């Protein structure tokens, strides 16, 4: 969106531009992240406000370790684990990744974020992601097609009740990709099924 665009003069390319001094002042910020995927599009929408202009030194990797692309399909290089291994060795690097991908890289530090300079700055934890307080929480939605003000088909309703049940939410936990819904979110969705 044009109102969020900035000129080349406003681009931040060194750590000194962010206020760091000494050894860091003139060091280039090395950027890491995913190639064009759903996560990359989400990042563009949330962080770039719909823009698609990445830092020229942006190192793109395949978002792997998912059902779409397994780590084994791309070999030893180019995937999520390779990106995080490279980032963990780069003193001047910063990157973004799904929490599940980064959990085994204890030398990487998650960054607290805010939607404005005034804060609050929120660290990415299970709780802040689950309750959607962390600014880069990506939600996954389920939609059903049915006429407004009409009852939901009984089979669809039963499936949705399973998804919202303790058993359904435990299955989400077992797959270890997404966090389960909060108790409040489950209650709210169950009311919609009534």
Keyword list:
three-stranded parallel β-sheet; 194 residues; elongated; mainly alpha; D-Maltodextrin-Binding Protein, domain 2; 2 domains
Structural description of this entry:
The model has no long low-confidence stretch (mean pLDDT 86). The protein has 2 domains: 2-108, D-Maltodextrin-Binding Protein, domain 2 (3-Layer(aba) Sandwich), CATH 3.40.190; 154-193, no CATH class. 31% of the residues lie in helices and 6% in strands. With 194 residues, it is mainly α. Helix 5 (154-164) crosses helix 6 and helix 5 (154-164) runs antiparallel to helix 7.
Summarize the structure.
With 194 residues, the chain is mostly helical.
Q: What structural class do you assign from the helix and strand content?
A: mainly alpha
With helices defined by DSSP (H or I, 4 residues minimum), what is the helix count?
7
Helix content: 25-40%
Number of domains: 2
Main sheet makeup = 3 strands, parallel
The CATH topology of the largest domain corresponds to D-Maltodextrin-Binding Protein, domain 2
